Amino acid sequence: MQIEVTRDVFRLAQVFTISRGSRTEAKVLTVRVSDGAHQGWGECVPYARYDETLESVEAQIAGLPEDITRAALMDLLPAGAARNAVDCALWDLECKRAGKRAWELAGLPVPGPEITAYTLSLDTPEAMRAQAQKNAHRPLLKIKLGTPDDMPRLEAVRAGAPGAKIIIDANEGWSAEVYADLAPHLVRLGVALVEQPLPAGQDEALIGMNRPVPVCADESCHDRASLPKLKGKYDVVNIKLDKTGGLTEALELRRAALAEGYGIMVGCMVGSSLAMAPATLVAQGALVTDLDGPLLLAEDRETPLEFDAAGVHPPSAALWG
User: 27, 134, 233, 240: which one is catalytic?
Assistant: First the structure.
């Protein structure tokens, strides 16, 4: 088995800003695994929040043995970007070897399109209202907040897109007091979900707190090992393949979270259609799908995912799986 890692850069359609900073491009790692007759590929987005860099993730992948399998990979690498790219590449390789689609190998029903959120970049209230108006035709908008001036921004987005469903990602930027103060206003403005309002290491305050708007664990939930610490704090878990370490664990986390009564959100980092493709399987029937990475790009893979009024469609075999 040969494992090849390359760096790819995709220009964004516009500057994308969250409370942690701004970017103009998506830097990803593309992993290709080959057995000489077939080749599979996958993509990951190293994330500084989890102490990942392009170099550190490349080093993790470089240390893998040539006879790597998906089962062995779970023990050799921790949950994270490196394991994600290799795991998804191995899924793609298995599909090509078997001449079957990924959902067939996983024993899942044939997938269909899912309505996806579209994320508005953090900006002034006036600019965010303009963004909302431009995208008011979309059924689900996501707002990146987590600053002292969140309410004017939220009010502006609601005014710009009065008919859209809105979810919020606070990116660990609030305190328990701020969330409690904002909650009635979130209800008034029709917010359907709040992602990670408190820092992952300081979310004990959510236990016993009135949550009129469902609260979703993002930074607090990585894989199945995260679930015991979420009890009583969260209503929904956000499954991202770059956190779970690939499709294999993402599917298991989904099953376990549903069994424990959590709603499912399927999210992404800002990456190409290749990164989103495996996640469309996890997103089937999810409470919230947030796989808009390709919609934020000015350029994409040669055979991109299809997005239309029905949502994000499962990948063609030419793309992945």
Answer: 240
Whether 83 shows a pLDDT value over 90: the answer reads yes
Strands (E), 187-310: 191-195, 215-217, 236-239, 263-266, 288-289, 307-308
Q: Does the annotation count 240 as an active-site position?
A: yes
Which one of 100, 134, 142, 144 is the catalytic residue?
144
100 flagged as catalytic: no
204: Cβ contacts below 8 Å, ≥ 6 apart = 233
Q: Which of 315, 266, 274 is nearest to 294 (CA)?
A: 274
Of the candidates 234, 300, 239, 289, which has an alpha carbon nearest to the alpha carbon of residue 119?
Answer: 289
**SS3 helix, strand, coil % of the chain, rounded to 5?**
35, 25, 40
* CB-based burial label for 93 (10 Å; 0-12, 13-18, 19+): buried
**pTM across the whole model:** 0.95
- Residues 172-224: tens digit of each pLDDT: 989 888 888 899 999 999 999 999 999 998 999 999 888 999 999 999 999 99
DSSP assigned state of 228 = G
Query: Is the pLDDT at 19 greater than 80, yes or no?
Result: no
